[in-house]
Specification:
CATH topology of the largest domain: Rossmann fold
Distance between the termini: 29 Å
Strand content: 5-15%
Strand order of the largest sheet: 1-2
Helix content: 40-55%
CATH class of the largest domain: Alpha Beta
Largest sheet: 2 strands, parallel
Radius of gyration: 15 Å
Shape: globular
Length: about 100
């Protein structure tokens, strides 16, 4: 999902080709996790958040969070407001002083 968002940004930008090249290079530099394991968790979280009338969250963010949960990973994002209502999600914002000794 993160790569999809990078490609979206590249296509939306003024420098499409240069930004696509950067996204491709980034894609080649790390392991991409399959999202199929996260789809059930995505559906569960989407329904639970909807039932409880919690803050509406974009599907992209829910899928990113669900993927982090099923792979038992910590999600690092400055955009914590879209993830705080997800059950069992380990979430950190490294731009905040308590997570970054250099701030």
């Amino acid at each position: 999902m993160t790569l999809a968002e990078l490609y979206f940004g590249a296509y939306k930008s003024v420098y499409v080709e240069a930004n696509l090249l950067q996204a491709d290079e980034l894609h080649d530099s790390f392991n991409v996790l399959p999202i199929s394991r996260a789809l059930k968790k995505f559906g569960y979280e989407r329904a639970r958040i909807d039932r409880k009338r919690l803050r509406d969250v974009k599907s992209e963010d829910l899928l990113i969070g669900a993927t982090a949960i099923v792979y038992e990973m910590t999600l690092v994002s400055q955009n914590t407001k879209d993830f705080i209502n997800m059950e069992n999600l380990k979430l950190e914002d490294w731009t905040k002083p308590r997570h970054n000794e250099f701030l």
